[in-house]
Design brief:
Length: 190
């Protein structure tokens, strides 16, 4: 018969505590993901993939003539006339600090509905390429990355989706633009 020493008991407690801690992390991650699980319209900007909740997407349109609006932020491409409704178009590349590139055959405008001050606004976001509608499960979603003490704004990232070897930033489209930026954009000529 093996005698259990005081040291074995302490080590056993540490193993149980460690296992319990890991299980809590898994449970916490799953409950975090459960709130965000669902269908996302995925798209590319440069080499990165992003997703927007499918319920926020109204339609996807090919690139069309965009009328510039003077004295707007650089990421505001201008406005388009979509079946009689004038909507602002945001170049998401520029908003995210990426280099501007020439439009290609895959460049599209995703028309989305955002909530701003208890009001729904329609805007277009210009992206490099639409990929697919992806059903992201709870266990495929992690919280946004932490950058320690760095002042990196990640409020607009709901979470990070993992699909096979891909990483997809799940966006809170209501927070991609700041309140002040939405105020400016919504005051564009209609």
């Amino acid at each position: 018969m093996t005698k259990i020493t005081k040291e074995d008991k302490v080590m056993g407690t540490q193993v149980v505590a460690s296992t319990s801690s890991a299980q809590n992390e898994v449970n916490s991650s799953l409950s975090f993901g459960a709130a965000l699980a669902g269908k996302y319209m995925t798209f590319k900007l440069a080499l990165e993939e992003y997703g927007v909740e499918i319920l926020k997407v109204r339609e996807i349109i090919g690139l069309m003539d965009i009328t510039s609006v003077p004295k707007t932020d650089k990421f505001v491409s201008g406005v388009i006339n979509l079946r009689g409704k004038v909507i602002p178009v945001i170049d998401l590349r520029l908003k995210f600090g990426m280099d501007k590139i020439e439009a290609t055959d895959t460049t599209v405008i995703i028309v989305v509905q955002i909530n701003h001050k208890d009001q729904e606004l329609t805007i277009g976001i210009m992206v490099d390429e639409v990929l697919e509608v992806l059903d992201v499960k709870a266990d495929q979603i992690e919280p946004p990355p932490s950058f320690g003490g760095a002042t990196v704004d990640t409020d607009y990232i709901l979470g990070v989706g993992k699909e096979e070897n891909r990483v997809i930033f799940l966006l809170d489209i209501d927070k991609v633009l700041t309140v002040e930026e939405v105020d400016k954009v919504s005051k564009q000529p209609q």
